[in-house]
Amino acid sequence: MKKLFALIAVFGMLLFVASNSVVAQDQPAATTTAVDSSGTAAADEAVAADPVEEVAAKAEEGQSLHSALKQKFIEGGPIWMTPILICLVLGLAFCIERIIYLNLSTSNTKKLLGKIEDALNNGGIEAAKEVCRNTRGPVASIFYQGLDRSHQGLDLAEKSVVAFGGVQASLLEKNLSWVGLFIALAPMFGFLGTVVGMIQAFDAIEQAGDISPSLVAAGIKVALITTVGGLIVAIILQVFYNYFLSKIDNLVGDMEDSSIAFIDLLVKHNLKNA
Q1: Same-domain status, 114 and 41
Q2: Residues 180-234 pLDDT 10s
Q3: Which of 183, 187, 143 is nearest to 161 (CA)?
């Protein structure tokens, strides 16, 4: 809160200084207008209108950029650009789902192991199971399976941890195949539009019996726009895909390391109770 108030105070001081400078600039302008109402007043009006014109020009540039994107989508051909857009939308939907799931699967395994160790020393297996039930993430689920089989022997508990760890690892990789599919489909649709556009260009040349830029420009434009669209979609989704692979590798490595430490805790607990 103190930082927020400080920022507000600094912002208010800047506004105060800016307003004073504007007033100081306006006073000479008013004086010069009274002295020479014909030439100087017109010049001041032109200077005052410059910021408005700049804002209007920026607004027009933003609008033209938006309209240019729409125009390129139409020029690329809705038949080919629509599947590319669908690949982008569906691919991003799966990416958002994976981001949420992987972030929820991330946990502090060292802290969890410390809680389980304290629970085993104070309350036994049931207390440790309660800690796992109240903890979110695949690591806690793996530990719970090991604790649930601990009364049947350490060998069976270790096998249960390994087997359930494989199940949790497969859940981490869920829906990644769909992201990979859209990464492959988007440039394929773009290249297909490229081939069709080139065919249209050669058909136009064949029908006219002559080669001129105006004849082949439309077909080549379709070819280039669809290719660029497909590649852009593939690049965006590929970045997310590689991030997911790196995140999953870290989570799986953390699961394996923590599982080894967890089995060691069970061994120590059984030795104390023996």
Answers
A1: no
A2: 999 999 999 988 888 887 887 777 777 777 666 766 776 677 778 888 889 999 9
A3: 143
Same domain, 16 and 54: yes
pTM exceeds cut of 0.70 = no
What is the pLDDT, as a whole number, of residue 76? 65
Q: Indicate whether 49 and 137 sit together in one domain.
A: no
Backbone angles phi, psi at 121, to 5 degrees: -75, -30
Nearest-angstrom CA–CA distance, 150 and 160: 9
Domain boundary among 21, 39, 71: 71
pLDDT of residue 249: 93
Tokens 């105070």 sit at which residue?
9
